[in-house]
Amino acid sequence: AQSVSQHNHHVILSEAASLELGCNYSYGGTVNLFWYVQYPGQHLQLLLKYFSGDPLVKGIKGFEAEFIKSKFSFNLRKPSVQWSDTAEYFCAVNGNNAGNMLTFGGGTRLMVKP
Amino acid sequence: GAVVSQHPSWVICKSGTSVKIECRSLDFQATTMFWYRQFPKQSLMLMATSNEGSKATYEQGVEKDKFLINHASLTLSTLTVTSAHPEDSSFYICSAGPFSYEQYFGPGTRLTVT
Q: Count of CB atoms within 10 A of residue B41's CB?
């Protein structure tokens, strides 16, 4: 079975600070990895995804994530956050034997102070 | 990107009644759709996998007789909460994707059972 853990439940940053949200997964085979964002009152949106190739993935709005296979990690980063980045962020994994099923981490609530 | 819609966006019903929630893929066909439940300030929990033309697959702990899923066509899946009770109040979200391993999420349906 696949599982995902996000260690930071709540993060508070000031604008222009750098962001790194941790995501670790547990799965024995090949995985596809995703970060989703949920802005207040809105539905989930895909930030970025990793299927194969370059382990450093760039997504929308200046976000990036790095897949480190040896650490089973897929941390999300942004060099300089903005107030508009205030949202909840979910890491998700899809194992190659799981069809289209996604398993989500517990989410990280990010608040950016202006 | 692909668009997934849900209807209604918010429903209030009395305890003991049944409520049907629709999930539609607007610009692609989906043989598989997923239904999630999200409690306040918590992550998404997969309830079931909806398969077009066959029975849904339910996750452990989800009552299939209470949460009836019908995947009537390649663009429509419905979730019916039967004999709803206040503890069924939650945010229900569906997802679907035109390609393997890539899911797009509907805006969610907020169910309030009084």
A: 10
Backbone angles phi, psi at B34, to 5 degrees: -125, 145
Tell which B residues from 37 to 76 touch A, by Cβ distance under 8 Å: 41-46, 49
Angle at alpha carbon of residue B94, lines to B90 and B99, rounded to 5°: 160
Please work out, in degrees rounded to the nearest 5, the angle formed at the alpha carbon of residue A33 by the alpha carbons of A27 and A36.
130
* Chain B residue numbers touching A49 (CB-CB < 8 A): 102
Conformation bin of residue A107: beta by default, left when phi > 0, alpha when psi is -120 to 50: left
A107 touches chain B (CB under 8 A): yes
Asked if residue A73 lies in contact with residue A64, where contact means CB atoms within 8 angstroms, the answer is no
How far apart are the C-alpha atoms of B56 and B41, rounded to whole Å? 27
Residues facing residue A78 across a β-bridge? A19
H and E: helices and strands count for chain A: 0, 12
For residue B40, cis peptide bond before it (omega within 30 degrees of 0) = no
What's the pLDDT at A97?
Answer: 67
With DSSP H G I counted as helix, E B as strand and the rest as coil, what are the percentages for chain A, rounded to 5? 10, 50, 40
* Contact (Cβ atoms closer than 8 angstroms) between residue B10 and residue B109: yes
Q: pLDDT tens for residues A89-114?
A: 999 998 766 666 788 999 999 999 98
pLDDT of res. A96: 67
Between chains, do B103 and A102 touch, taking CB under 8 Å as contact? yes
- Please give the Cα distance from B67 to B55 (Å, whole number): 12
